[in-house]
Amino acid sequence: MISQGSLGQQHVPTMPRGTTLTEEEMGFIRALHEEKKSTRYISFKVKRSQSLVSRYLRSPETYNTKKRSGRKRKLSDADRRRLIREVRTTQCSVRAAKRALELPVHKSTIARELHRSGNFEFKKARVRFFLTARHMRQRVDWARERVTWTLSQWKKCVFSDEKKFNCDGPDGWSSYWHHTGDQERVFQKRQNGGPSLMTWACFSFYGKPQIVFTDGRQTATTYVETLKDNLLLWATKTHGETWTFQQDNCSIHTAKKTKAFFREKNITVMPWPSRAPDLNPMENLWSVFARDVYKDARQFVGKDDLKAAIIEAWNTLPEEVLRTLIESMHRLCEAVIARRGDKIDY
Predict the structure, then answer these.
(1) Residue range 160-187: mean pLDDT, rounded
(2) What is the C-alpha separation between 265 and 256, in angstroms, rounded?
C-alpha cells in the first residue's frame, strides 16, 4: 500500500485542465480513494477542483455520460406541488383538479404527473355499508352477548347466506400482471356480467350440505322450501336436535311464513343486527370459494359451465377452512367491541 508520504514524492503526470476528467485522472482518483484519502488531498494531487473530484466519486459509473434532455415537462415545479397538495387534500378527480387549479394542460398530463410522483395509485374506492350510531350499538350488543361463548357453543351454529355468480366473473377481478413480451389477455364482458346463477349455502364447524341453485325471484315460500329440502335433514343429522340457525334480515327471511316455519320445526334462530355482513363467517367463506371458481381469471360461456365449476369448487372446499372460520368467532366478537361497533376487516 502506498503511504501518503511516499505518494507525495512520487511522480504525478501532468494532467490536462479540461472540464471533464480523463481516463488517466479517473484511474488515479480511484486509486487514491481506495487508499482512504480525502477528496481535498485527491484534488490537490490530481490538480483538479475538489467539487469535480467529489462529483466523480459520487457516481463513477455514470460520470460524463450524456443525459437525454427529453421533452420539457408541461407543469412547473410549483404547479406540480400545488397539484399533489390539492389531490391529496380533496381526493378529487384529475378533471376536478384541472378545473380547481386552472392548469393549462390536458387531464392525461395531470394523471401522468400524479403517477410519476410515486405517491398516488389509481384504484377503485372500497365500498362499505353505512353504519349509524344505532347500527353500531346493535352490533356491539350482539358481540357482547356472544363474546363469552365457548367453542362448543359456536360449533352448534349453522351460518347461511345467498350469493350471485356471473359467467363473466365478479366485478373488479379483471386485473392481472402482464408481461410486455406476451399477447394481451382480453376479458370479454357482457351486459350485467352475462348469464348468472343465484345460490344459497350454509355451513358449520362440522361441514356443509350441497350448495343450492335458486331460480327466479325468491319469496318466503320458495325460501322455506329451500330450508326444508336442504337444511333440516343435514342439520339434524349433523347436530342433533339442538342447534342455532343464522340468517340475515332479508325480507323473505323475516316474513311471517318463514317465522312460522321456524316455530313449527322448533329451530332456534340467532338474532342478527342490521347491516352486519362482516360478522357472518359465510362472507369469508364466499371469498375463498369464489377465488377458486374464478381462478386464473376464468370466464364461462353459459350457465351449465358455471354451475359445474361452482359445484366442483364447493365440494372441494377444505374442511379446515370451515373449522378455522368458526374458531375465529370469539376474536371477531372482541374486534367488534374494540371498534365500538364499527365495521371490521376480518
Answers:
(1) 64
(2) 14
Phi, psi (rounded to 5 degrees) for 4: -60, -35
pLDDT digit string, tens, across residues 17-40: 556 888 888 888 988 988 889 999
* Band of pLDDT at residue 130, cut at 50, 70 and 90: confident
**Strand, helix or coil for residue 126:** coil
Question: What φ, ψ does residue 137 adopt, rounded to 5°?
Answer: -65, -40
Q: To which H or E segment does residue 212 belong?
A: strand 212-214
Three-state DSSP at 324 gives helix
- Greatest Cα pair distance, the chain, in angstroms, is 109
Placement of cell 367488534 in the chain: 336
- DSSP three-state, residue 165: strand
Backbone dihedral region for residue 91 (phi beyond 0: left; psi -120 to 50: alpha; all else: beta): left
User: Do you know the residue count of the chain?
Assistant: 346
pTM: 0.62
Q: What is the DSSP string of 15-52?
A: PP--SS--HHHHHHHHHHHHTT--HHHHHHHHTS-HHH
